[in-house]
Amino acid sequence: MRKDIQNTAEIKRIEEIKKTTEIIKVNEACLDDAVIRRAGEIIRAGGLVAFPTETVYGLGADALQAQAAEKIYAAKGRPSDNPLIVHICRMEDLEKIVTQVPEQARKLAQAFWPGPLTMILNKNDCVPDRTTGGLASVAVRMPANRIALALIRSGGGFIAAPSANLSGRPSPTLAEHVWEDLQGRIPLILDGGAVGIGIESTIADLTGEIPVILRPGYITMEMLAGVIGQVRIDPGIVDEASGIKPKAPGMKYKHYAPKAEMVLVEGKPQQVVWAINRLAAAQEAEGKKAGIIAAAETADCYRHGFVVRIGDRGNEDTIAHNLYRILRELDKSGADIIYSESFSTPRIGQAIMNRMLKAAGHQVIQAESLG
Ligand code: TXA
Ligand code: MG
User: Fold this and answer.
1) pTM of the prediction?
2) Which of 8, 26, 330, 350 is 20 to 30 A away from residue 307, measured at CA?
3) 171 CA to centre of ligand 2 in angstroms
């Protein structure tokens, strides 16, 4: 073979290797040190590694290297004004990236870290603008997952990680979801199996006098108030039709959207079942495929469309756990339209409905109005 042809073949081969994404299974109960070390080296060298947390899978890079953070935006197709969350594994590391740790932050960290709470604090100079989207504040969280904590330690202590999905797709709750979205774009996925919670962390802004929730999650307003007293919720996320801009830049984007149009149906359970049956029947009459998101308690009541069970109303954690997986499955099913029961309840219900309303682009029908 001629040498120049041989060289071209070699370059192609190297390019192909670079494009492949490796998935390595990791058992949270007995971590493989060699795998964690290797993943940590990729992070230190400015590369990307996807990893499990207790909420959703994250796409990690060294938070203190601007060029590494840059790669996250490119891999996800994420708008560059949408800042990243910095993940830490030791309380003392918090002091290194913020100007000051207020007493309230200390109390919340003690109560909920490691865990699904992200706090916004004023950043200091070692955090590059690329990580915070140009903001003077930084989002910080200590995740409750041993694989994540070991990777953060091995990667140098500060991992910037958004959810490991392509921008606009549902957050990944399984390594397979990361693979679907990011194969060929990142070198390594650590597969720790299904995540526990299934929706992203609660975000609380602690830069003002009264803490403000910018994104609802597993840690509720009541839980936060139980530790620090008064807490407010960002008006921009309560009523998106109000025109008030949400304070977390990411909350303004159309998120979590399935490919098919999605409509939420509200009302008493019996009325909702009746309304969805009627809507699905009308779609079928037009030769269209209607997907239905139903709770276990009502899933058997549908005569039209195809039903996916999201979880039990009696245990809403199951609904949060399955939500994003089901949205991805409905995409694959080729549904033309999705009708979903709604889950407007307290506790984690607020976070579930926040995600569902976004997925549905705020299309809500009152079951009564069809009667
Ligand atoms: O559970 C989670 O938080 C997951 C896992 C991987 O830890 N991460 C996650 O990251 O959900 P991401 O990038 O998908 O969402 C981060 C949100 C965005 O809405 C972003 O705008 C907001 O946090 N955010 C980040 N830094 C901020 C800041 N300094 N001020 C206000 N909002 C901020
Ligand atoms: Mg996200």
Assistant:
1) 0.92
2) 350
3) 6
